[in-house]
Input
Amino acid sequence: MPVEIIVPRLGWSMEEGAFVAWLKQEGERVRAGEPLLSIEGDKAIQEIESIDSGILRIAANGPKPGDTIRVGDVLGHLVSADESAPAPVQARSTKPGTPSPSVEAPPAPEVGPILAPVPVPPARSSLSVPTISPRALRVAAELGVDWTTVAGTGRTGRIRERDIRGASGSKATARASVAPMAPGEKSVVLVTGGCGFIGTWVVRELLGRGLGVVVLDGTSRPTRWQRVIGNGSDPIPLVQGSLLDRELLARVFAEHRVTHVIHLAALLTPACQADPWEGCRVNVLGSVALFEQARALGSRLQGFSYASSVAVFGDEPDHATGAGPSESLPPTFYGAFKKSLELIAAQYWRHFRIASVGVRPQVAYGPEREVGLTAGPSLAARAAARGEAYCIRYTGHVGYDYVEDVARALVRGSLETPPGALVVDLPGERADVDEVIAAIAAAAPGMASKLTVDGPLIPEHAPPVPCCISTLYPDWATTSLAEGIRRTVSFYQNRSL
Output
């Protein structure tokens, strides 16, 4: 029998909303789970999915874009091939600003029988920054208006398109316009966290490709840039600040004419465990702020990649007892925050079509890795190059990714971003710590007796179903552990000459 398409309640206080558009055509076959129409509620435009299948029959007297619709309104039906929609379909709608019909609406369930809302969370906290409609946000980007300074005239102070257009001539609210990329214009990649270990090698890879680079980091210009990049690091623009400074972030995008993003800025496991609140602010809210700025960039944004981690997975299975991973739940706050970043990226693709590539390295090693428990192999290679003894303070069998591979993956993810919100695993090379010691000894003959291993078993956090980067880039080549260790030892040997 025909199934009614009913306007769902998108929030506890919602009684009516604005019809935006049908996402399927009259007579088109619809599958359960596919986006069917979009509605603007109190907070944002939301796509509504169908939770049943059938052929779409739109009510002849149904709403037009911009019309007001009430919770419980019947907008159409889903029918089988041999059915027709009941006639007439009583779809109640009104033009904006006109009274609603006096017909009493039927009681509306929180989620209608056919439609399930796909929620779009408020982009900004109403406690500190006003909310803005998606259309107004796009217009603000086009006109170069800093919308955070605009007074909204919508419900609960929400900023609407007419507010942005009214403010577009004010010098107090105008900022540099973000124009689409011009033909022949040089790409500029924003690297957040570019002063860190991986960030330094990412910047080096970008400069080697002849691309423009701007770095946003909370620290000053690092000496490792000179050691890894050389004199080419001198002209690199470094903006010191936080992703949570939204005004600064908007200014960086506009003044440096950013076209691509590589997002590395994050607090690591110890800091997140010691202060989960600050870890969440930096790793989660900072990432949302960056995605929001990328969203405001519109068509000028050409690609977006970010560093995730195998820490999003639970501990590896216990092969001795047969026990499996703990539902693949992250065992640390850091892992939970990285998993949140993957989910946030998926939402920005789903609702705003911002494509991204997340890269999950395993143990990243190489020259200039100095911090963290898994810095042991890199520090052991440095010690061997200097003829010094060193003890790696963990044991176990994990995957190792050479830092140049990690940098190359992030750069390709940003420059060659396919549609979707993809997350890929780096294959690395799985090895026991004793094999790492052997590789270092092979690169630095005579040092085997000075290198030791002692410490707890390190969890592997292997992905249950790996999605290797080669599925995205079939020509991907992995640097072997022996070669990566050789390059690391050679780097430090050359510096000691």
Observations:
- The CA atoms of residues 357 and 398 lie 23 Å apart.
- DSSP finds twelve helices and 22 strands in the chain.
- The longest helix spans residues 276-297.
